[in-house]
């Protein structure tokens, strides 16, 4: 791979299906060393437990604040808004290390990955001044309110409505699968502000205070009993004019642009990485066969390839592009790989999964990953929907 050019490619030179060839600069090596040293300290504190899905299940606001003290939350936000003023590639290195370690990052995850960049791009100056420094300090946590009961894959058919009031908007509707709404401070909610024949028009985004009157959070428990997701009921919630995010009616355009942040990061292929680490530790205690090593080698090659694609999306974001098609491709490949990783682990080392085994042991981690694996290809957009996005991107350049 060739090193990154001092002048990154402009947004106009990146086609919807191009992936810049990326080699991380020397500065990221030092950054990676710093993050690993920090993680060693946190392991000694007992906060980093090496669990899969740590960006969804690892809620630890104190850990988020300690990251923020080092400038590792809101890294890509400008310094004038409290951020570190660094690039998406440097942020990538930090979150890659955190996810590979299974660190508890879910408290600040959506704020850092999605809400902060969205407010920076579409928000008013007042919104930027208020929210971004708090996000970068690890003291303001966001959820995303998109999906609805009958509007999962067909997001444009959302039924949540925002009606004009004397000094703002009144939101009525229910959002489903709203991660962290029982813990977070705000949610960015997609609602219909105008009735039009084109269902993609007339949508707008709002920043909703999750402690406001009329907000009701109902738990959606997983089969394991865990409480990560919620039904977010908006029962006549009054939202001031100043909490409209972006332009009225531009919600669809804003949401589709934001999905590149959500779909392309290393969480789309590293959610189960701690299980692979556990497998290698287990194999280190026993003789291995050529067949076992071959399967692990194939898995490692796929991980390496998807990582290169994901890094390419980060480089495109640094260049100011909106790599929606590339992001969809990374998520499709990455979430399928996560399922393959579990299958490979089971075939290479046929240890029975046991949810009641010692926490952090290989049988317990395997049981955890198996239990949650059906959701890998659903959350953040089903693979079927993603392939439609990829197809449209390809058709644009036939």
TrEMBL record:
Record's GO cellular component terms: plasma membrane
Keywords of this entry: Flavoprotein, Oxidoreductase
The keyword Flavoprotein is annotated on this UniProt entry: yes
PROSITE patterns xrefs: ACYL_COA_DH_1
Keyword Lyase: no
Gene Ontology MF terms: acyl-CoA dehydrogenase activity; flavin adenine dinucleotide binding
Pfam families: Acyl-CoA_dh_M, Acyl-CoA_dh_N
Recorded coiled-coil stretches: none
Limits of the Acyl-CoA dehydrogenase/oxidase N-terminal domain: 26-138
Cofactor: FAD
Acyl-CoA oxidase/dehydrogenase middle domain span: 144-230
This protein's name: Acyl-CoA dehydrogenase family protein
């Amino acid at each position: 791979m060739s090193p990154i050019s001092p002048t990154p490619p402009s947004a106009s030179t990146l086609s919807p299906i191009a992936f810049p060839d990326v080699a991380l600069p020397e500065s990221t090596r030092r950054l990676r060393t710093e993050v690993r040293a920090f993680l060693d300290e946190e392991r000694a504190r007992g906060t980093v437990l090496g669990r899969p899905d740590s960006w969804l299940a690892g809620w630890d606001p104190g850990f988020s604040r300690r990251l923020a003290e080092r400038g590792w939350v809101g890294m890509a936000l400008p310094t004038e808004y409290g951020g570190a003023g660094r690039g998406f590639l440097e942020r990538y290195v930090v979150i890659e290390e955190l996810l590979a370690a299974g660190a508890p990052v879910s408290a600040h995850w959506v704020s850092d990955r999605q809400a902060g960049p969205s407010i920076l791009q579409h928000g008013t100056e007042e919104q930027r001044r208020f929210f971004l420094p708090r996000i970068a300090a690890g003291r303001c946590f966001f959820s995303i309110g998109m999906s609805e009961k009958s509007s999962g894959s067909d997001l444009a058919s959302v039924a949540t409505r925002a009606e004009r009031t004397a000094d703002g908007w009144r939101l009525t509707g229910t959002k489903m699968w709203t991660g962290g709404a029982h813990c977070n401070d705000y949610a960015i909610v997609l609602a219909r502000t105008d009735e039009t024949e084109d269902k993609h028009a007339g949508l707008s985004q709002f920043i909703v205070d999750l402690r406001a009157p009329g907000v009701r959070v109902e738990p959606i428990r997983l089969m394991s009993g865990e409480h990560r997701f919620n039904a977010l009921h908006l029962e006549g919630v009054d939202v001031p004019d100043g909490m409209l995010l972006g332009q009225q009616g531009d919600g669809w355009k804003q949401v589709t642009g934001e999905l590149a942040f959500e779909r392309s990061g290393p969480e789309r292929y590293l959610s189960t990485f701690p299980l692979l680490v556990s497998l290698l530790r287990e194999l280190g205690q026993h003789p291995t066969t050529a067949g076992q090593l071959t399967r692990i080698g194939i898995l490692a090659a796929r991980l390496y390839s998807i990582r290169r694609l994901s890094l390419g999306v980060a480089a495109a974001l640094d260049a100011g592009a909106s790599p929606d098609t590339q992001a969809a491709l990374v998520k499709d490949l990455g979430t399928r790989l996560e399922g393959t990783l579990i299958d490979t682990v089971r075939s290479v080392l046929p240890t029975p999964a046991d949810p009641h085994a010692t926490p952090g042991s290989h049988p317990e981690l395997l049981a955890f990953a198996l239990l949650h694996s059906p959701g890998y290809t659903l959350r953040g957009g089903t693979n079927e929907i993603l392939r439609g996005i990829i197809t449209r991107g390809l058709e644009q350049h036939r």
